[in-house]
Design brief:
Among the domains are: about 35 residues, no CATH class; about 210 residues, no CATH class. It has 15 helices and 4 strands. α5 runs parallel beside α7 and α9 runs antiparallel to α10. By secondary structure, the chain is mainly α.
Length: about 375
Amino acid sequence: MSIDKTSTPPDDHVVENPEAATGAATVVDPRLLVREQGFAGYITEFKRKMKAGDLGSIPVVIGLAIIWIIFQSLNSNFLTANNLSDISIAMVGTGMIAVGIVFVLLLGEIDLSVGSVSGVAGASFAVLNINHGMSEWLAFVLAILTGTAAGAIHGFVFAKIGVPAFAVTLAGLLFWNGFMLQILGSNGTINLNSDGMVAKLTTYYFSDVAAAYALAIVVTALYFLSSFYGNRRREAAGVPSRPLSETILRTVLLGVLSIAVAIVYNQYKGLPLAVVIFIGTLLITDFVLRRTPYGRKIFALGGSVEASRRAGINVEMIRISVFAISGTFAAIGGLFIASKIASANQGAGAGDLLMNAIAAAVIGG
């Protein structure tokens, strides 16, 4: 009696899904999951993020609220329109530096020289304009170009020579700090013209109440349009997107917050010019990073250097340009800081400025 070894097993033993039989799990990017619509969808998404440890901006918001409560309890003037307006202006200098650091962080690198470069920019402007009588506009441009050149040098040494960015920019921190001390001279402090263009960066206000409300409306409208057309592109590409109701809800919340900020500004002197410039800078840089080929190359390079090189991206030039951008924004931030304190001094760019700028870039996302 022979046994047929090729006979097929009974139908109830047939494995129709080998993947299920082996217990293999399919890894799915959470961003590609189709979320349940409506309020239940928000709850489901929130639970998923909590389980994954993705708290998003919740810790930042809670921490900010705690700080406000403590400071207000210590000083009843903390949450006044006057103080909040002054704080927002004071943050612009550090914020500008943080914008440049974001570009570097996207490469997976760090720039430790931005504090010193910002001090050099403020000192260069003061020396050229006050000590040598150069026109404010020309001195302003040259001060910014000084930061651009400093960043480009760091990028060249990093990209072409191969010295790690940490070492290059740490050396730059020391060198540019010494350079600033040298050009300021023994006096150490140069006061700026109180009526000059740079001084007005942090002292000029749009007194018309309509200006603040107009900016709030523009920011809200741009957010809605960006979100709406972004969702349309995702739908066209077959990628899950936010429902229109969620986009509208987010837009309404942003609009309410923007109007509230406008009301606070109008209770004091009006909309600060520095805030307008900073918001405009954020919108432009966000567009460059998210919507242009250059921005996509930066993201690609931060993801994989070798893959980017094989894709035809000029890795060295992107790296040099990113550090040049970081130096440029450091210089702009330094000019805002000089405007705020109405002088250039030996302490500019020192202290906790570097750490604050890096923290702003990291915590701000």
